[in-house]
Amino acid sequence: MERGLILLVAAFMVFVAPGVQGTAHLSFANNTEVNITRTGCGVSKLCLETPDNCDPAGNGTCLFGSLVASTPVAPNGVNLSVELRGNSMGYVALGLTVNASEGGTMLFVCAQNSSNNGSFFFRTMMRNNTDDMLTPTETRVTEIRGSVKDNVIQCEFDVPGVNATSTRSSDATTFNVLLGTGTLNGNSLGPFNVSLKSGALNIADPTSNTAGTTAAPTMTTNSTTAGTSVLHPHALLVLLSVLTLSVMQKA
């Protein structure tokens, strides 16, 4: 049976204490689908997934995230539109961090509350990259939409003013992107289990995680291509030797 729920947030989420969600302007609508696909990957949106090339629109296991960034404007950074899809009985999450081994990760969590008929809810957390501790944090997130169906969690949301630097005169869009899942106990989040670390990516470039095109090595053959004969250097020397010998014999 499908369990769908859409959550629209017009104001930022406020967390007043660990495990306690503060007030926000919320509206709900039942039986609403969020359909995430690979359309636009590498062209209009930066995509990450595990396993490789899995289909978020299919029925198989696929942890998938995509990012679309506006043009960077210093010092405001970029506005991000995010898609997230994964299989979990607890939560799926996408994280942004400048350094995955130290500092913190801004974690965007889409979850289902099994104690409330699998209803969808959204949270933002700060993950300590040293000890993996999760702490509720205030982050402005808008246009949150989410659905849950057969333990497949899908959500879309916008994050304004994302900047990898605190320098007011510049903007930076290079982040490490993390994808992962976790368990849920009531409204309390269990540890974030990282399934994918992207390495440093320019989130404003949809092609930043695709391998660069490398020219194939030139293959030399004796065949004729498009009417043009290809001669190896040693073959040319042999031909010149034969011609020289022929001229000497006629002299």
From TrEMBL:
<dbReference type="InterPro" id="IPR042789">
    <property type="entry name" value="FRRS1L"/>
</dbReference>
<dbReference type="GO" id="GO:1900449">
    <property type="term" value="P:regulation of glutamate receptor signaling pathway"/>
</dbReference>
<keyword id="KW-0732">Signal</keyword>
<protein>
    <submittedName>
        <fullName>Ferric-chelate reductase 1</fullName>
    </submittedName>
</protein>
<feature type="signal peptide">
    <location>
        <begin position="1"/>
        <end position="22"/>
    </location>
</feature>
<dbReference type="GO" id="GO:0099072">
    <property type="term" value="P:regulation of postsynaptic membrane neurotransmitter receptor levels"/>
</dbReference>
